[in-house]
Amino acid sequence: MPPPKDVVKIAIQMVGAIPQLIELQQTKPLASVLKDVCDAWSLPNAEHYALQYADGRQTYITESNRGEIKNGSILRLTTSPDQEAERLYNGIRSNNVDVKTDSLKKLASLSQDVTFAQEFINRNGLKLIFCIVEEGNDSGEILAHTLKAFMELMEHDFVSWETLSAAFIKKIVSYVNMNAMDASVQQLSLSILENMVPSSRLLFDLVKKEVTVDRLLTHLQVTNAQLQLKAMALLIALLLAATDSERRDMMEYLREKNIRQFIHKNIIHSPEPLGDEMAHYLYVLQSVSLNLYDRRMRTSMDPYSQEQRELLQSLRQAAFESESEAPTSNFSTERRRSLCAKEFRKLGFTNNSNPAEDLRRAPPGLLALDNMLYFSRHTPNAYSRFILENSSREDKHECPFARSSIQLTLILCEILHIGEPCSETAQAFYPMFFGQDHFFEELFCICIQLVNKTWKEMRATQEDFDKVLQVVREQITRTLSLKPTSLELFKTRVNALNYSEILKLRQTERLHQEETLAVPVLELRERLKPELLELIRQQRLLRLCEGTLFRKISSRRRQDKLWYCRLSPNHKVLHYGDVEEGVQSPPIESLTEKIPVADMKALLIGKECPHTKEKSSGKQNKDVLELAFSIVYDVEEYCLNFVAPTRYEFCLWTDGLNVLLGKEMTSERMQTDLDVLLSMELKLRLLDIENISIPDTPPPVPKPPSNLNFCYDFSHAEQ
């Protein structure tokens, strides 16, 4: 007979005593349970004790979290949080350096527990920490433990960052600005400032004023990877919290300091592999930089603006400079207007008499004009060649420069996600972005020449405009997917991917699709599916056995804390637990938390997850929703919440968990993998009938012969 739902069988340990095996009644008050445990070991003052998990984070057991205790859990009898908080509070005030150091070290560890943190803060413990920092008498290990404890205490949001004193903040800033300072202290100080920046405008202004961009760049140039990472984190926090004008000024200053070239050389191409956190910060830096074009992209051209009209005229004059040298002053106004209209038509504007009308559409708005001007000024030979070459073609076959530029600018904005908010989890950045100052403009210069090249290859006319730009979009996206490391490499690869290559790729894909649509082939696909689906299921379970590193994400900031989850080799238990930065694949024994697969009830994804509902503060981040999933387990229906590092990992984990739950795999990755495997298997099976058309219906089976006399009788041969 199974035990009642409100009873769990657990073990309780105590140093120097034989462990107790008890049946914990969840309806019984925790104080009574503690008294029974203390009485069994003849311990007085049961109120001075508490229970905590023996493994993992060693969280204190309270009335609010006792429901999470599972059958087979191992607890430990220890000093109660209020007694421990009092002891550490007195230890930190001690004049004995060793006692003080040990107390701060223990405080940094215990402060991760919300119950202990509340008790310590209630004793005005933060004031002690402020005094240690503000007085400045301690350094090295003591200071590092103090700052670590402060970070952990603030993590629980009991105290607002805005309550910090000016003296405390100045001390933290001074640790960052000092040259001769312990690296661990500087890392913690940078993390504290990173947390302060998004908390309030006042704190942002203070940090921005006291910690200069130059100082952060100095930290970026050190060999200590963790210090480099924390400096980048603070720089990104400042950029995200800044106003548009402040962000623009900061990015301009970073450009002057050649930050991109430094990142390209010393971080992206560093001998050490790039971590997920740094990859995310580089993605954000790229996104923030590209989003500076958003304002121009969304601004329509004002036909009454003298400045903008002059820019248009300069574009015309750069193309027809030799012709413009003729003394137009002798021409009548009507003649000059007619000449300008003719030249604007040669430039490829649809509205010859008023080309500003072509730039009224936003996006791409004035950004298209900026790109055309950049192309004409920085590559004048290529610009003149483009215009003159098309001016000499027949009207139908000329490639319209202006119209192409406007559409190409829009395509590049869509491909590079200009104007879209930064993702909290994305890590996809283009290495070549950091190798070039004017990346967007230079990319446009390469791609507009690609438009002209593709136009000629397609022998296009004006009616084919959309088709040409569709091919160009495909050329750009296919080349970008290869992640070229420089614009030169991008230029080489995109030009190699000419129209004939695109046609071959399309034809291959189409033929593959056609040959797999024949009725006999479709029947064969259906027969192969079960075997290949089983193969995918096994692969998903193997991936879960390898495990994945997940990040904890709070509503306030991207967390540094990591945890790992993996499936046991026998597929019966999910093991998980917190891990330190840099740990790639922790042994299963070190993951102390467990969930039996038999206890798993359901899989939730996206908006159904409790951790996405908690954070739905008006503007829910789309990326987190796409990567979030939760496991509902146990009779009490607890949830283990995940945010996958990538969409690929999300698909693998949701598929694997569905397999464990006995459900169908539903991710898009499963369909992709199945298509690839089916394609390979079908090609192998159909090799013998290559170049033979497969009929839709099987050939008729011939009638049996009237007699079987044609069979050879082997018995006569033997005689």
TrEMBL record:
One GO BP annotation of this record: phagocytosis
Name used for this protein in its record: ELMO3 protein
Function noted in UniProt: Involved in cytoskeletal rearrangements required for phagocytosis of apoptotic cells and cell motility. Acts in association with DOCK1 and CRK. Was initially proposed to be required in complex with DOCK1 to activate Rac Rho small GTPases. May enhance the guanine nucleotide exchange factor (GEF) activity of DOCK1.
GO MF term list: SH3 domain binding
Domain annotation ELMO: ranges: 307-480
Keyword check for Iron-sulfur: no
Domain of life per record: Eukaryota
Listed PROSITE patterns: ELMO (PS51335)
Alphabetical keyword list: Apoptosis, Phagocytosis, SH3-binding
Entry-linked SUPFAM superfamilies: ARM repeat, PH domain-like
